[in-house]
User: Fold this.
Amino acid sequence: MFVSGNNLSAAVGTLVGSRIVSRIAGVFIGSMGFFLGLVLEGRFLKGAAISLVPHTYIYISYAFFIAFMIFVFANKGRAPLSLTMALAGTAIGIDLKIHYPIDYGFVLIMVIFWALAPVISIIFSYITEKAFFHRDYKNVWSVAVYLKILIIVASFLTAFTLGANTLGFIANVEGFNPYTILVMTAGIFIGAFFLSNGVIKRVGEEMYLMRYSNALISLIVSSLIVEVATLFAIPLSNTQTLTSSVFGVGISYKYRGIYMKPFFIIILTWIISPTLGFVLGYMV
Assistant:
């Protein structure tokens, strides 16, 4: 519920904020993306869950509780903390505490993905924005229509990849079975329709100020990178890739200043999230 409500804004904030679709339609597009991503590709994260989390319910409960509390406190403080990274860090802390055999090769690959994903997002967003949208088009209105359609598709794909990766990781930690999927499906739609209103409005208005082309590039680059991570069974935060994509689009403009403080705060949370999870997992 919390993941769905909080992260829905990243997927459909542009749609709702720019009035391409209504809030209800945007929420439906996002929640269906979450659901289909979880059902169709959620199993891909099974290897990550097996590698990181001891499959006994007492330790699974500890891991969920700690990651959940970190996420709740972050939400209260409006900090964009990643549940994926918090849960992974918590699991590793528990593993060390109970001497559970850790697949250090997988952990190394995961950390490399976490480090490279923002860099790749920035580079791809910068190059794409420069190549396709820094030019004059003869029929501006026609381009705007196509951009609206593409933003709808990109928003759905962003929700789909988050459902496959973040929600898929959660499902595989507990056990990817019909009961788990049923409960998570209820959580997806309840969170999307009842916990997302304020966040969608705030983020939607902020993203709309970027222009259609900026939002489109950010969403597409973010969703593609998370999809690649999913195919390799690597848990990866959409917050990382989307924020980095927005930054890459921003620096593609020669004469536009960028307020750096929010990006530095977000980078700091990427470090704090798994570290705090690790410490608390080890202590518990």
Remarks:
- The mean pLDDT is 83.
- The longest helix spans residues 140-174.
- The radius of gyration is 18 Å.
- The chain is about 80% helix and 0% strand.
